[in-house]
Amino acid sequence: MPIRLLSPEVASQIAAGEVIERPASVVKELVENALDAGARTVTLKIAEAGRTLIEVADDGSGIPQAELPLAVSRHATSKLSTAKDLFQIKTLGFRGEALASIGSVSQMTITSRTTDQPAGARLRLEGGLEAEVEAVGTPIGTVVRVENLFYNVPARLKFLKTDTTERRAIDALVTRYALAYHQVRFKLTEGQNVTLQTTGDGDRRAILASLYGVEVAKQMLEVLAEDEGMRMTGFISPTALTRSNRREITFFINGRWVHDVALTTALTQAYHTLLMVGRYPMATLFLEMDPESVDVNVHPAKAEVRFREQERVFSFVQRAVRRAILAYTPVPSVPSGTLWGSETTSRQAGLDWNIAHDELLKIGAQPSKNLSSAPPVQGKLKNIPLLRLIGQIGATYLVAEGPDGLYLIDQHAAHERVLFEKLMAQHEIKNIPAQALLTPATVTLPPAQANLLSGQIETLVHLGFQVDPFGPNTFQIRALPAIFSGSDPAAALRVLVEDFEEDETPLQNELEARIAGRVCKRLAVKAGQTLSPDEQHALVTDLENCDSPRTCPHGRPTMIHLSVDMLERQFGRKGAR
Ligand code: ADP
Ligand code: MG
User: Fold this and answer.
1) SS3 (DSSP) at 414
2) In testing the pocket of ligand 1, which one of 36, 43, 80, 122 has its CB within 8 Å of the most ligand atoms?
3) For ligand 1, atom 14: residue with the closest CA
4) In this structure, are residues 50 and 167 in contact, taking their beta carbons and an 8 Å threshold?
5) Count of alpha carbons within 13 Å of 560, Cβ hemisphere only?
6) Quick one: DSSP state of residue 39?
7) CA distances from 98 to 146, 162, 220, 443 (A)
8) CB neighbours of residue 155 within 10 Å
9) Residues 474, 402: Cα–Cα separation, whole Å
10) Most ligand 1 atoms within 8 A of CB, residue of 54, 99, 142, 299 to mutate
11) Is residue 238 within 8 Å of 166, Cβ to Cβ?
């Protein structure tokens, strides 16, 4: 083929591919435009996960009638005029591409009116081709209506994920912008459901609740830090609240949601040694800095930035987060001169799970000089010796004697392991005895989670749960696996949804095992719960019968072993001490 110039339609579709990837990208661009226009209220309507309709209405400055055709032209913007301006951008938009891009891959209608116009105007675009501008009556502000996204690029449609996933991306986006712009009123309606509504009164924690649910929102720690020319506000999770991926980590820089690996690393490093391996914090953090110190023009969808002084920003975030965690989380310390001697006093007892105990035990190695780990494994790797129960201490640990010393068993971790193996064994033979609830429990979830759950009811059936939709965002639990009888079904359901967060569906079996692990953790006896002697016995016997009795399903040890040999050394009966 000879070289030819592409037709404007093809050229703009190619360009649109960079900016508009999915319905959530349209939502992002339109919300950013509304915010740039100084909106106090942003109202969004979505139908069919944004495939058939995305409408964003604002009460901002509006677009003058004469400028409507320009607004939808490529490289037309009111936010920038010289190249120098690029380095002091204070608006979210500046590329002058969004409306043109959206217009070229959808049927788009813009209706707008400025304060000094008596009436408004409307412009309709179909696949990038403009119709005449017509005068219409409309309130001050702008309404952009995008119908049938990608109707003229069917290949794009094939790349969209399930409605649930696309809807979730939109929910996540709008909720985060609502958090960042807490002085602006947001309302998001999807079909008949209002999925988000904020008051614009600046109460961030209330918005956080619609993102994570009330319980989690209550626990999130508030961060406020300042350093020369930089300021950070927002929320981070306490060490007890973690996720299996980094997806709940959000950073805004100067009001712009960005994905930045370095910032995410700074955050996770601040939690170093405080979280288990493979667990990540949740965070929504807002950084403000001089626009000149950050280059926002490095990514077509403006999702990445470059810092002039990356190191300084990195260490600011890391130190601020670390300080906040430590301020809220008392670090238990082992007083010197205790049984443990000097070898362990420098460790933060009970918090340092960064050694993958499980792995070490599997290969039969002994964690170096680490007294609080299990003993060297002899003979058959898996099992623990028969134990003689002595009793419970602190309503948290069981004390038992084995042939080679004393065992301290963490009742919660042990029970978690026992429940998990029982459930998985029943699951394997596809026979999980269910226990019907006399009074079915009803649970109302935040819309995003409710959405996820609806898509996974089948998985729950496999795990012995019987859950039915019961009105908007509400579910009814009618039966539980029998091994959980007596525990709180609503609590179980809430943990279940946490695990449906992945975009890509993992293998069904893997998913089920993960969910099982999560439920067992939630429903296992807690520390602080007094157990009857019978319950204590049953737990120790059940643990002895487990395949992997030494760790809970999440890799924490279920027991600490104090060998006779070690006790003798500690009491000075043996060796020099
Ligand atoms: P950019 O935001 O990068 O300038 P867009 O294509 O998103 O590019 O928008 C083009 C122009 O249209 C903007 O510069 C702005 O002047 C105008 N505009 C778009 N949306 C709105 C809105 N909701 N309210 C007022 N003006 C708008
Ligand atoms: Mg824009």
Assistant:
1) helix
2) 36
3) 77
4) yes
5) 13
6) -
7) 12, 24, 35, 40
8) 8
9) 49
10) 99
11) no
- Cα separation, 402 vs 392, whole angstroms: 16
Q: What is the pTM of this model?
A: 0.64
d(CA 191, CA 53): 10
The answer to whether the CB of 530 falls within 8 A of the CB of 397 is no
Q: Is the CB of residue 59 below 6 angstroms from any atom belonging to ligand 1?
A: no
- CB of residue 63 inside a 6 A radius of ligand 1: yes
Measured CA distances, 507 to 168, 386, 453 (Å): 21, 37, 17
**Widest pairwise Cα distance in the chain:** 97
Higher-pLDDT residue of 489, 361: 489
Lowest-confidence region among 19-28, 176-185, 191-200, 293-302: 293-302
List the one residue out of 164, 206, 162 whose CA is nearest residue 447: 164
The vertex-568 CA angle with 562 and 574, nearest 5°, equals: 140
Q: Would you state the pLDDT for residue 347?
A: 32
CA distances from 547 to 59, 191, 212, 362, 561 (A): 63, 49, 35, 12, 18
Indicate whether 191 pLDDT > 70: yes
Taking the mean position of all CA atoms in its chain, how far away is CA 116?
A: 44
Tell me, what amino acid is at 176? R
- Cβ of 33 less than 6 Å from ligand 1: yes
At 492 the pLDDT is: 81
Residue 561 tokens read as 């072993």
Contact 482, 230 (CB under 8 A): no
Q: What is the 3-state secondary structure (H, E, C) of 193-248?
A: EEEEECCCCCCHHHHHHHHHCHHHHHHCEEEEEEECCEEEEEEECCCCCCECCHHH
**Candidates 40, 70, 77, 177: which one to mutate for ligand 1, based on the most atoms within 8 Å of Cβ?**
77
Q: Identify the band that residue 284 occupies on the pLDDT scale cut at 50, 70 and 90.
A: very high
In the chain, the N- to C-terminal Cα span, in Å, equals 86
Tell me the three-class secondary structure of 45-74, residue by residue. EEEHHHCCEEEEEECCCCCCHHHHHHHCCC
Instruction: Work out the angle at residue 527's Cα, subtended by the Cα atoms of residues 523 and 529, and round it to the nearest 5 degrees.
Output: 85
Instruction: Check residue 103 and report its DSSP letter.
Output: H
Whether residue 275 has pLDDT greater than 50: yes
- Residues 6 or more apart whose CB falls under 8 angstroms from that of 176 comprise 211, 250, 252, 257, 284
